[in-house]
């Protein structure tokens, strides 16, 4: 069961990208985007993204049009209130998390400090 006080905003661009990744993977079972926070990076914590087929007990699960995002219970504590987007710019594309709990972040935007 997920944390009932956990709140994030997931943009439509994230769900669209999950659909694209599923089309590219051509798996029998749809893949879910797992977002987690781990120790590392130049600021102390780093966001990690994986495509998975299953969720775990305690995961937060967000679904729209059969595209699914899962966030483990420990990571929920680090990104509560965050906005998750998928950005496409000239020459690159990436998932972006705007995290109100982050007190500092790395230049790449994928590492942060609390």
TrEMBL record:
Residues 7-110 form the Core domain. InterPro entries: ATAP, ATAP_core_dom, HesB-like_dom_sf. It comes from the Bacteria. One of its GO terms (molecular function) is iron ion binding. It comes from Orientia tsutsugamushi str. Gilliam. This is Iron-sulfur cluster assembly accessory family protein. GO terms for biological process: iron-sulfur cluster assembly. Pfam families: Fe-S_biosyn.
């Amino acid at each position: 069961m997920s944390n009932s006080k956990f709140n994030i905003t997931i943009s439509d661009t994230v769900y669209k990208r999950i659909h694209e990744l599923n089309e590219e993977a051509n798996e029998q079972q749809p893949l879910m985007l797992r977002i987690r926070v781990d120790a590392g990076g130049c600021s102390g914590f780093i966001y990690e993204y994986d495509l998975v087929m299953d969720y775990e007990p305690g995961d937060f699960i967000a679904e729209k049009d059969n595209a699914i995002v899962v966030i483990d219970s420990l990571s929920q504590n680090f990104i509560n209130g965050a906005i998750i987007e998928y950005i496409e710019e000239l020459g690159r594309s990436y998932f972006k998390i705007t995290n109100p709990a982050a007190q500092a972040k790395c230049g790449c935007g994928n590492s942060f400090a609390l």
